[in-house]
Write a structure and sequence with these properties.
Layout: H1 5-31, E1 41-48, H2 50-54, E2 61-63, H3 66-79, E3 89-90, H4 95-103, E4 114-120
Parallel strand pairs: 3-4
Antiparallel strand pairs: 1-4, 2-4
């Protein structure tokens, strides 16, 4: 079967579209966040207290710090769909912030529930 010029033109356009789409997908996946890898974060718990969040991380993971959250963990959590129920996230607090939480009595408050993201120790 011979193709006419119109059909050849469609095939050429389709070929370039597929090639462009493939490059676009590859670019999105490789440049989404170059600072983190596939095992950079894990989900500790979707809705838990601070005390529970501290113990929710798997071995070789810890509760993410603010710098880890802002350097890629938030983005990966959003892309993984972990913000379905709760967009408030616990962070590994500094000593001064822990003291403030103790004063406000929110440290052990089981009514304050947030998402726990666990960052890799490596």
């Amino acid at each position: 079967m011979l193709l006419n010029q119109k059909d050849m033109h469609k095939i050429i356009h389709l070929h370039f579209f597929i090639k462009y789409l493939g490059q676009e997908i590859e670019a999105e996946s490789t440049t989404a966040n170059t600072l983190v890898g596939a095992n950079y974060i894990g989900l500790g718990c979707e809705s838990c207290s601070y005390v529970k969040a501290l113990s929710s991380c798997a071995e070789n993971y810890h509760l993410c710090s603010y710098s880890e959250l802002y350097s890629g963990a938030y983005l990966l959590a959003r892309k993984n769909g972990w913000f379905k129920f709760n967009t408030n996230v616990w962070a590994r607090e500094s000593l001064a912030e822990l003291e403030k939480m103790k004063e406000k009595e929110s440290l052990g408050d089981s009514n304050i529930l947030k998402l726990a993201l666990c960052c890799s120790d490596r």
